[in-house]
Write a structure and sequence with these properties.
The protein is an all-alpha fold. It is built from eight helices and no strands.
């Protein structure tokens, strides 16, 4: 229902591709819980996908900084999601990594709301979409953490 509402304000492809991006976040904990894959393997794939997707946000900030010709702080912040994602890949398997990724998604959402240069209508609909997507992402991280411990 919420996705159909968002289609009124966001391009169809944005809403549905965002929703499709949730598939691994939902399926991998389920696959691990049902023992279709060893839980450790499912958690590793989950961590890898989460880290790669987190780095995607760095590209959004990079583009936003370049489009505003803001070569200061935001350009440097644009590198953080990629560096944190890479660090999480290096440290995959450590208990805190899934929690760190989850916190980063919340931080990215906050940063989006504060700093992206979109019109008021665009930022409102974008943040509504991101809140829905981030909620599922954070809950799936919590689910995977629960399964592992």
């Amino acid at each position: 229902m919420a996705l159909f509402f968002l289609e009124m304000f966001m391009p169809y492809a944005v809403v549905w591709l965002g929703a499709a991006g949730l598939i691994p976040f939902i399926l991998l904990p389920m696959i691990g819980a049902l023992d279709w894959l060893p839980l450790v393997t499912s958690a590793r794939y989950f961590t890898q996908y989460s880290a790669v997707l987190l780095s995607f946000f760095g590209g959004i900030y990079w583009w936003d900084a370049l489009s505003k010709r803001d070569y200061g702080v935001q350009l440097y912040i644009a590198m953080l999601p990629t560096l944190i994602g890479w660090l999480c890949l290096v440290l995959a398997g450590h208990p805190f990594v899934l929690g760190l990724l989850s916190l980063c998604y919340l931080g990215v959402l906050y940063y989006d709301k504060q700093c992206l240069s979109l019109s008021k209508e665009e930022i409102v609909s974008y943040i509504i979409l991101r809140m829905a997507l981030t909620t599922v992402v954070v809950l799936s991280h919590a689910w995977m953490i629960f399964l592992l411990f």
